Every structure is written in C-alpha cells, then in structure tokens.
Amino acid sequence: MPIERFLGRTGINVMTRVRALIVAAIGVNFITTGIRSELPGLAGQ
C-alpha cells in the first residue's frame, strides 16, 4: 500500500492508536449522554 510505504510501520501504529483513542472518546460521549438523560439529578442541573 502506498500509505504504508509513506508512513512506515511506526506511523501505522501511531495512526491505529489515534483512531482507537477517537473511537473510545466517542464511546465515552455516548455513555455520558445516556447517563445524563436517564439520571438527570447526577448532571448537576
């Protein structure tokens, strides 16, 4: 793959970790949104 030749093995590993971090952040956002809607008293509003 041209991208793999450009980035190298280390670059691919870094990009994989960055994507995993983004997916984890989106998951945490979904969870906190769900908790806030189900338990509004915990949201501090």
UniProtKB/TrEMBL annotation:
Record organism: Bradyrhizobium shewense
One Pfam family in the UniProt entry: MarC
Protein name per the record: UPF0056 membrane protein
Keyword hit for Transmembrane: yes
Keyword Acetylation: no
Membrane-topology descriptor: Multi-pass membrane protein
UniProt main location, coarse: membrane
Subcellular location: Cell membrane
UniProt similarity note: Belongs to the UPF0056 (MarC) family.
Keywords: Cell membrane, Membrane, Transmembrane, Transmembrane helix
GO CC annotations, alphabetized: plasma membrane
InterPro entries noted in UniProt: Multi_antbiot-R_MarC
